């Protein structure tokens, strides 16, 4: 069975995907831990054709080592163009020594505590898409507007 792509979906070139990745600061890391999928928000930076983030010891670190296959995703909405977009990067994760990372890499932890582990996701597959939203006026309204995400 093949799924047909809806009309109006633009597949982004790799250069466009990297530009979108560079323009954001928070993404979602997907890993498999103890046989179960897990998703974590992380602040990150793009460096030398890869995504780098900091973490403490724990699930993100253990599920990313050694050279585990992970997925990283960002998305957004451009209200002026009335378009939504998403970028997905799949690759292998590896810990790198903090001294290897450049001093200027903007990876200050948001949460208090030592985040002494630098993880680099080496891109093996990068894809993105952009599309016009079906009801742009709803997306430009406050979250309290009853037209937004009502499941009643």
Structural domains: how many: 1
Proportion of residues in β-strands? 35-45%
Which structural class best describes the helix and strand composition?
mainly beta
Number of strands: 7
CATH topology: Pnp Oxidase, Chain A
Strand order of the largest sheet: 2-3-4-7-6-5
What percent of residues adopt helix (DSSP H or I)? 10-25%
Q: Give the overall average pLDDT.
A: 83
How many alpha or pi helices? 3
Major sheet size, sense and barrel closure: 6 strands, antiparallel, barrel
Indicate the radius of gyration in whole angstroms.
Answer: 17 Å
SSE order: EHEEEHEEEH
CATH architecture descriptor text: Roll
Q: Whole-Å distance between the termini?
A: 32 Å
Task: Describe the global form.
Answer: globular
How would you sum up this structure, described in words?
With 152 residues, this protein is mainly beta. The chain has a single domain (10-139), classed as Pnp Oxidase, Chain A (Roll), CATH 2.30.110.10. It has helices at 14-22, 59-63, 136-139; strands at residues 10-11, 26-33, 36-47, 50-55, 69-78, 83-96, 117-132. A six-stranded antiparallel β-barrel has the order 2-3-4-7-6-5. A hairpin with a 4-residue loop joins strand 5 (69-78) and strand 6 (83-96). The chain is globular and about 45 Å long. 20% of the residues are buried.
């Amino acid at each position: 069975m093949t799924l047909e792509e809806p009309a109006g979906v633009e597949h982004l070139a790799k250069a466009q995907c990297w530009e979108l990745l560079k323009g954001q600061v928070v993404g979602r890391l997907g890993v498999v831990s103890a046989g179960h999928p897990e998703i974590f928000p992380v602040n990150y930076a793009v460096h030398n054709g890869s995504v780098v983030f900091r973490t403490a010891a724990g699930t993100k670190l253990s599920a990313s080592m050694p050279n585990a296959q992970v997925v990283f995703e960002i998305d957004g909405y451009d209200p002026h163009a009335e378009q939504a977009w998403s970028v997905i990067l799949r690759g292998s994760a590896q810990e790198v020594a903090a001294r290897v990372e450049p001093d200027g890499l903007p990876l200050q932890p948001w949460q208090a505590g030592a985040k002494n582990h630098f993880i680099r996701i080496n891109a093996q597959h990068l894809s993105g898409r952009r599309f016009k939203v079906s009801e742009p006026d709803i997306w430009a309204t406050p979250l309290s507007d009853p037209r937004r995400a009502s499941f009643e």
